[in-house]
Specification:
Blueprint: E1 2-5, H1 23-33, E2 35-39, H2 41-49, E3 54-60, H3 64-71, E4 77-81, H4 83-90, E5 98-103, H5 110-114, E6 119-123, H6 129-141, E7 146-149, H7 159-165, E8 174-176, H8 183-189, E9 193-197, E10 204-205, H9 206-210, E11 216-220, H10 229-234, E12 237-240, H11 252-265
Parallel strand pairs: 1-4, 3-4, 6-7, 6-11, 7-8, 9-11, 9-12, 10-12
Antiparallel strand pairs: 2-5, 3-5
């Protein structure tokens, strides 16, 4: 690594790290330049361990030594600055003290992601980055083999998603579905039983819905309206998590955790 001290918050070399609070701008910049950001020592380590190529890193002085074992062998610029200057550059206090800018990869095909998978999670139009990151963490921790995202789902490699997932987005195979309309029939044709998590009148207890399933696709919908009528009607089964005390549903990330746990025990 090459250690480079930063003294100017407007240093042109730090363009990857500016305006991190502006979601729309960041989406455009990251898409245009094919990059994503990893925040914190553990997440940076996991990105490197997964083979993602770093463009550069930015950190406070005290984080150089803890990361030296993985950064020393790399041909990469590591920019360092006092914490007050870092806050001026990125727009907030970096609690974990380090940011890495990494190059994105071309997404794999759906067929490649599903090859050998027994349990997958399918997300339809979940737009909250925190929820997407939390679902990836559930999937990784509870033995899900892959995650598929509808075209309009939030970006799993957006900084907030990566942070909440604790870097598990780098270890769980995932890709985007090319065709929203035929997604459920396509998964059924690939040998998966699609189970839509829904409050529909014909939904059955989740445990009953998955107990006899070999290759399972758990389907979760957007935060407000849930799964679309098209996906509900074209899924093989509809399932619900039994609730009590007048509560009809859980946050989608919490529901994903329960569903993944039940799926792992089937």
């Amino acid at each position: 690594m090459r250690l480079l001290e930063v003294t100017d918050r407007d240093d042109d070399r730090l363009a990857d790290y500016r305006d991190l609070r502006d979601t729309q701008l960041r989406r455009s910049l990251e898409s245009e330049h094919g990059l994503f950001l990893a925040e914190g020592e553990k997440v940076v380590r996991r990105a490197l361990a997964a083979g993602y190529r770093p463009r550069s890193l930015l950190m406070s002085h005290r984080w150089v030594e803890p990361l030296a074992d993985v950064l020393d062998p790399l041909d990469v610029d590591v920019y360092t600055a006092p914490e007050a200057l870092l806050e001026g550059i990125v727009g907030f206090h970096l609690h974990r003290g380090a940011l890495g800018s990494f190059e994105r990869r071309t997404l794999p095909s759906v067929a490649d992601v599903l090859d050998g998978a027994r349990t997958v999670v399918v997300l339809e139009d979940i737009v909250d980055h925190t929820n997407v990151g939390a679902i990836f963490r559930c999937a990784a921790g509870l033995g899900v083999d892959a995650v598929l995202l509808a075209p309009r789902c939030a970006d799993p490699l957006y900084r907030r998603s990566v942070k909440v997932s604790m870097g598990t987005v780098f270890s769980v195979p995932w890709t985007r579905l090319p065709d929203w309309y035929s997604a459920m029939p396509d998964l059924s044709a690939a040998g998966f039983t699609t189970v839509a998590m829904t409050l529909a009148d014909d939904a059955v207890d989740l445990e009953d819905a998955v107990t006899d399933v070999d290759r399972l696709a758990l389907v979760l919908g957007t935060e407000g309206e849930g799964i679309s009528p098209r996906w509900q009607s074209s899924a093989d089964r509809r399932a619900v998590i039994p609730m009590s005390a007048g509560v009809d549903s859980l946050n989608v990330a919490a529901a994903a955790a329960v569903a993944c746990y039940v799926a792992a025990r089937r």
